[in-house]
Amino acid sequence: MSEIESRTAAAEIRAVIEDWAGAIRRKDAGRFLAHGAEDCLIYSLAPPLKAPEADAEGLERWFSTWEGPLGYRIQDLDIAANGDVAFATALAHLSGEKLDGEKASFWYRLTLGLRRVAEGWKIAHQHESVPFYMDGSLKAAVDLDPDSSVDWNAPSRPPMAGVIAYLSVQDANASAEFYGRAFGAREQHRKYAEDGKRLIHCHLAINGGALMINDPFPEFGHSWKPPEGFVLHLVVDDADFWWQRAVAAGAEVTMPLEIAFWGDYYGQLRDPFGVMWAIVAPMKKGD
């Protein structure tokens, strides 16, 4: 391939990638998929480890979890083309707000393999990745940016910050499923007991924080006791959304959601397992 042909191919590929990125920003599944080859192989940030080309239904479902358009930009794009094959590497930044109010903003590494066909350049391989911290936590390093540097002499950060509630509930499996429906909980990890039914440990991520639950094990001196004396607080931007979702899932209203005497928009719910929850939205000026 001559230098002129190489520059022409690079310009064509850059235009394809820019339009592909624009489809992500607009959450346009059809336009996004139009840039993929029929046998496109995807190694995405989300499980599984290896997936065939994304289907429109699955992509639309993922797009629908975001409020409004997505923020998506590509930096340090480098393109190498030879004949009908090309590779592009870049750093990509994704940002946006989930329907449950959770905000996302992170950089990751992007590699695209492209193949030239009759219709033009098509993405035949998509590979996304983030590094993880080598401090034993195996935590994804989504807090890095292109200007980040590593201090190898710095002490290891704690795997998780803050105080984490760890609850023994009557049915940890059912609780985890309910918390997913009611509070948008995402399961991070679970471990079963030898009976294959009860959970020794289940780690849930809710509203940017962590909640741990397990089943009672009376044979080891850990019998179930009715929960009392505590309330799990969810401080959110859209209290009405969180409230309505939890009530629709089956949470019992014990204190209506209203402006409390101290000024916050506040209400309490009891879940089917007896745990008390508070939905809280700090009032802003002008509210």
Secondary structure: elements and pairs:
Elements: H1 3-26, H2 29-34, E1 36-43, E2 51-52, H3 56-63, E3 66-82, E4 85-98, E5 103-117, E6 120-129, E7 165-168, H4 172-183, E8 186-192, E9 199-206, E10 209-214, E11 232-235, H5 239-249, E12 252-259, E13 265-270, E14 276-281
Parallel strand pairs: 1-6, 7-10, 11-14
Antiparallel strand pairs: 1-2, 3-4, 4-5, 5-6, 8-9, 9-10, 12-13, 13-14
Helix pairs in contact: 4-5
Task: Give the key terms.
elongated, Glyas_Bleomycin-R_OHBP_Dase, 2,3-Dihydroxybiphenyl 1,2-Dioxygenase, domain 1, 287 residues, Glyas_Fos-R_dOase_dom, 2 domains, DUF4440 domain-containing protein, 5 helices, alpha+beta, Nuclear Transport Factor 2, Chain: A, 14 strands, single chain, VOC_core, 6-stranded mixed beta sheet, 4-stranded mixed beta sheet
Outline:
The chain is α+β, with helices and mostly antiparallel strands and about 290 residues long.
In CATH, the topology of the largest domain is named Nuclear Transport Factor 2, Chain: A
Class computed from helices, strands and strand pairing: alpha+beta
Which residues form runs of ≥5 with pLDDT under 50? Answer: none
Number of helices: 5
